């Protein structure tokens, strides 16, 4: 695919060790399950261009280690992120109980405006479930998160999680509720040449002269 895109968003994948963060990223980029996944050391990186609301958006995704011993390293990557997948494992209550800590880190270190989608991963292991869909969706509602249950194994809802998060960021910019600065959003090379407030004209189709 060509490297042409309208926007660049920085994304994080955060959550406890073993919840399937690296497998989710691999499934999203490669469209297949990563058979042998070892613990991430520090951070790993992936990127992909997707089409959202008729715009090409490049996602620059940082897959962080969930293990506590890497926490100081991974925290240094939060800055400037526009979106995040906050991942727990539906078969592990421990990973669900840790969500509040991950959430406050993301809002404190990335931005108050960061758009977060909660992902209850390993949906394919429903028989071993320890966290109900209802409980997690209430948590998501209370904390202003989007929510999906995903499976990095089958691919269910994996693309949707990234796309929904990117769509919400674009909506926030388009509605003017959030200025793009500080949102982890960078206009792509084509838009940069369009002059003032390129993100608005690109999103609304308005001629630039109409903007105040
Ligand atoms: N059944 C099932 N297993 C999964 C799924 N996603 C990941 N796994 C398994 O869960 C284990 C951990 O997956 P990883 O992607 O390495 O987890 P991680 O969150 O990146 O872990 P850290 O890098 O240590 O933070 C691996 O054995 C995967 O095969 C899933 O959706 N379903």
UniProtKB/TrEMBL annotation:
PROSITE patterns membership: RAB (PS51419), RAS (PS51421)
Catalysis: reaction(s): GTP + H2O = GDP + phosphate + H(+)
A GO term from the CC aspect: early endosome membrane
Keyword Protein biosynthesis listed: no
SUPFAM superfamilies in the cross-refs: P-loop containing nucleoside triphosphate hydrolases (SSF52540)
Chief place where the protein resides: membrane
Co-factor(s): Mg(2+)
Protein's membrane topology: Lipid-anchor
Xref: Pfam families: Ras
Annotated Low complexity bias: 178-192
Protein name: Ras-related protein Rab-4
Species assigned in the record: Amphiprion percula
Organism lineage: Eukaryota, Metazoa, Chordata, Craniata, Vertebrata
């Amino acid at each position: 695919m060509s490297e042409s895109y309208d926007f660049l968003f920085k994304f994080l994948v955060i959550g406890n060790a073993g919840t399937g963060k690296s497998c989710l990223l691999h499934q999203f980029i490669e469209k297949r399950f990563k058979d042998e996944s070892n613990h991430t050391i520090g951070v790993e990186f992936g990127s992909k261009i997707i089409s959202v609301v008729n715009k090409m958006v490049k996602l620059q995704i940082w897959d962080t280690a969930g293990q506590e011993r890497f926490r100081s390293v991974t925290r240094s990557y939060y800055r400037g992120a526009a979106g995040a997948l906050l991942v727990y494992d539906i078969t592990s209550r421990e990973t669900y109980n840790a969500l509040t800590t991950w959430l406050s880190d993301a809002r404190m270190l990335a931005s108050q405006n960061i758009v977060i989608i909660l992902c209850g991963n390993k949906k394919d292991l429903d028989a071993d479930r320890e966290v109900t869909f209802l409980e997690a969706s209430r948590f998501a509602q209370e904390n202003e998160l989007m929510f999906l249950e995903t499976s990095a194994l089958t691919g269910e809802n994996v693309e949707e999680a990234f796309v929904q998060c990117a769509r919400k960021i674009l909506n926030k910019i388009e509605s003017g509720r959030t200025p793009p600065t500080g949102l982890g959003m960078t206009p792509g090379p084509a838009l940069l040449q369009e002059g003032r407030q390129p993100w608005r004209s690109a999103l609304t189709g308005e001629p630039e002269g109409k903007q105040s």
